[in-house]
Amino acid sequence: MDETFARRMTGGAGILTAAAIIVEVPLYFVYSGPPPDSNVLARLLIGIVALAFLVVFVTAFRELVKRVSPAYEWVGSMAFATGLVYATVSLVSSGLEAGAVIAVDHRIDPTITVSGTYILYGSISRLMLAFFLAAVGCAVSRTNLLPRWTSRSAYVLAGVNLAFVPSLFFGNTPADFYAANGWGTTALMGAIFSCWLLALGVSTYRSAGRLTSGQQR
Questions:
Q1: Cβ neighbourhood burial of 40 (10 Å; 0-12, 13-18, 19+)
Q2: Is 40 within 8 Å of 114 (Cβ atoms)?
Q3: Which of helix, strand or coil describes residue 50?
């Protein structure tokens, strides 16, 4: 994988991940009360697709860092590892939530299935995403593979995610802003992350064109 292809794959995967999350997030706000099962399952399906693209993104990003600056491959590997853990945790929580919906439909007690999703969606996901963003910010700032705003915004967003880690102490009511499963902890943070990832993906993809033009000259 050469640098140009790595930039295009990283940028393209970032754009697709962000697009899927942008489609998913509004589904959390369609209903003022408890949403129907169709809404929950639809947003879970879109979220799973987004996470699949995210796995491609973190893999390609590691290769991009390796191509640009082999000395900082370890930072790319850290971004890959934490991003992969974040995607895995989110996939598990999505599976548990989908299982709870199916359990209710079949009149099965969903308590055990649902209880684990609160901390997975909340504190654990926020902590892993913060580590991932910090690693991305460090990799970009050390290697100069993207504009400075990408690394600075990654650090800021990492700090915001860390601020939501203690939300597990504030209940698990989705209607609350700051709660283990609150709309601020989950939906809002997902929306902010998707906007950042979209901008990062576009910047990375466009950098491949500039790199190609420079090589031709």
A1: middle
A2: no
A3: helix
d(C-alpha 200, C-alpha 211), whole Å: 16
Cα-atom radius of gyration of the chain, to the nearest Å? 18
Q: List the pLDDT tens digit at each of the 217 positions of the chain.
A: 788 899 999 999 999 999 999 998 888 888 777 778 888 889 889 999 999 999 999 999 999 999 999 999 999 999 999 999 999 999 988 888 777 666 555 554 445 445 567 778 788 999 999 999 999 999 999 999 999 999 999 999 999 999 999 988 888 777 888 988 888 888 889 899 999 999 999 999 998 877 666 554 4
Handedness of CA 57, 58, 59, 61 (dihedral sign): positive
Query: Whole-angstrom Cα distance, residue 131 to residue 82?
Result: 6
In the 8-state DSSP scheme, what is residue 55? H
